[in-house]
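[User]
If only I could read backbone structure tokens as easily as an amino acid sequence. I have put the entry right below:
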Amino acid sequence: LVHVGAGLCAVFGTLSPVMVAVLAFACGRGQSLMSWAGIAVACLGGLVIVQYEVQAAHTKDLQEDGSSVVSTGLGLTFLMMSVMLRAIKIVLLDKLVAAPGAYKGSTWEPLAPMHAYAVQSPWCFVVAVLFMMFTENVPDAVNQITWPVAASIAATSVSAVVLNFIGIFVLR
């Protein structure tokens, strides 16, 4: 939210199912015609809003050094990367735990949900740490950790793990 507004983040978040559907189709999962119609409507709506948000970002008062444009571009890059990585994670998990034959040419036995979680968790952690190293001042962040902040981080982490478990079992 430092680089782009919450509205644009929300719009990009709604494009996540579109990316998942396209990537799953590219990996061999079929979609009905009605599914593609819904995906097209979501994609067109998201593109219209994104176009407006990008135009608004370029017409707002820019600082003399142009850092506002650079910041918006960096924010859009982070947004696209998060949507793409989320889609890759979902399709990979779906492919690993899906019943045989769900994807064209799939002959493997599906993994147990916990095995799938063990495959994806280290990579998610690495991406999160790399993002943190790129965007945060680590010494300042460490100095600002208090008990309430640590409790919030712990609660957020626990809820993320629980939601990941629920998602894996729902895919199964």
About this structure: DSSP finds seven helices and no strands in the chain. The mean pLDDT is 80. The longest helix spans residues 67-97.
